[in-house]
Amino acid sequence: MTAIARITLLSMVLGLSACAVQQPEPTRLPPIPPSQPSTKPAPPTVPSKPSTPVKPSKPMPRTSASFAPPPGGNSHWDAKLGVYVLDDQTNTFYRQRTYYRWNNGWSRSISPNGPWEETNIHGVPSGLGRQFGQ
């Protein structure tokens, strides 16, 4: 091989090897334009009296997310007791197709008008048992 051919071949090998080692240049994003100042004037600041935070009262939920309300009866959900409280019958409650009544002892029924069968604290939802005890 001639000296010119060797030099040419050596130059090509060195030139190509430099391309293989070189890191690619990162792509550049276009610059972010500067933000424009607001054209609205700022509202005047008036010193106010320090106020005490007022906690808004939460309305009691009328229904439960887990249990359906009693059919045709005015009631509200009592989360502490875990039952619906019938609004027009004293100490009468409802949950899962069963009515519960406290009258110096527990009784239960499938209707708010009875017939009622006696039960003990184990036959009522736990929230009722804790509230009224026996």
From TrEMBL:
Coiled-coil ranges (or none): none
Leader sequence residues: 1-20
Region (Disordered): 24-75, 112-134
Composition skew (Low complexity), residue ranges: 48-57
Organism superkingdom: Bacteria
PROSITE patterns (alphabetical): PROKAR_LIPOPROTEIN
KW Aminoacyl-tRNA synthetase (keyword) present: no
Record's keyword terms, sorted: Signal
Bias kind Pro residues: ranges: 27-47
Protein name: Lipoprotein
